[in-house]
Amino acid sequence: MKEENISGPGNLRQKAEKILNSKPKVSDGQLSVKEALKLIHELEVHQIELEMQNKDLAEAKTTAQESAEKYAALYDFAPVGYLTLSNDAEILEINLCASQMIGRDRSLVKKSTFGFFVSDGSKPVFNRFLEKLFAGKAKETCEVILTPAGKAPIYVHLCGIASRDGEQCLLTLVDFSRMKEFEHELQQSEERFRHVSSTISDISYSCKVNEKGEYAIDWIFGASEQITGYTTSEIMAMGCWGKLVEDEDAGSFQKNVNGLSAGSSANCELRLRHRDGRIVWIASSAECVAIQDDKGPFVIYGAMVDITKRKLAEEELNATIDELQRFHRLTVGREVTMIELKKEVNELLREAGKDERYRIVG
Question: Rounded to the nearest 10 degrees, how much is the dihedral formed by the CA atoms of 85, 91, 97, 103?
Fold first, then answer.
């Protein structure tokens, strides 16, 4: 049997009359004037109550409509994407931002499978996300790449939760493509930094010195591994450069680097022992700066330049000079000896009554 529609005024009246007829009849006797007036008063009050209730219902309906419109506006024009998917990943509801992310009009994507807009590389991640979402009934997140029509791929963070009946899930989509671009630019910058620093033959560093006189290198820039053979982390673990300084230069290192007082600076040349055992000459410049007061703690800011090639060149030059000086001494000594011999020959010739053979000047 078809259910009656009782929403209209006529049907409401018919329903009311039917209920009234089913109730016991009141006495057909005539009402007194007093009783009639009382009944009229009750009816008038009841009418006013109904009018007030009707007004309240109308206001509540208006408020509900306004709230619904506000919700719809917030949903449609939110700066993040909103999606409602079935347990088969079919798009049931989608807001404007989400439709822009996938590059399709909302009217065209409803009933479409959301996975169609996910990149091939991200599909396994998205499928696992949905499985966990509907299986666990808890909030799940993942990151996927969407492939909007006619646009570059975009990176999207998905956050979702399944409905209680497990038939649907609600998703939020946040586009973090710009952050990915920043990450890529940062990686490129760091890569350039590494390449540039590897070509620099200098080292810059800072070394903290606490109140107990303990040293800790906390920052290194430049070709430290190229010059010493040790990685930055290995050098930092040593505490200071002193463990690489040759014993013969330990005093100079203490005086001109580690032993500096607040506000002082010094330059010196030191020999470091490379990881492979060879000697590396460096020109050191260091300055000690107080962090709080002259009693410490301090920071030593320093720089080191590899001067090994210059030192080797100097050693070669000095060796050449020494060789030349030795040759000069030998040559001069030989010349003096020849002069003495020539004098003796001339003397013998004179004694024999003959002319001198050699002319000696001076």
Answer: 140
Query: For residue 165, how many other CB atoms are within 10 A of its CB?
Result: 7
Burial of 6 (0-12, 13-18, 19+ CB in 10 A): exposed
The pLDDT profile of the chain, 362 residues, written as one tens digit per residue, is: 344 444 455 566 677 667 767 766 655 556 677 877 887 887 887 888 888 888 888 888 877 777 766 766 677 778 889 999 998 999 999 998 898 898 888 888 888 999 999 999 999 999 999 999 988 878 999 999 999 878 889 999 999 999 888 899 999 999 998 888 888 888 877 776 665 555 555 888 889 988 788 889 988 888 888 899 999 999 999 988 999 999 999 999 999 998 888 889 999 999 999 999 999 999 999 999 887 666 668 889 988 999 998 888 888 887 877 777 776 666 666 666 677 777 777 777 777 777 776 676 65
Say which residue the tokens 């470091």 belong to: 272
Q: Which helix (H) or strand (E) holds 92?
A: strand 91-94
Q: Half-sphere exposure (CA, 13 Å, Cβ side) for 125? A: 15
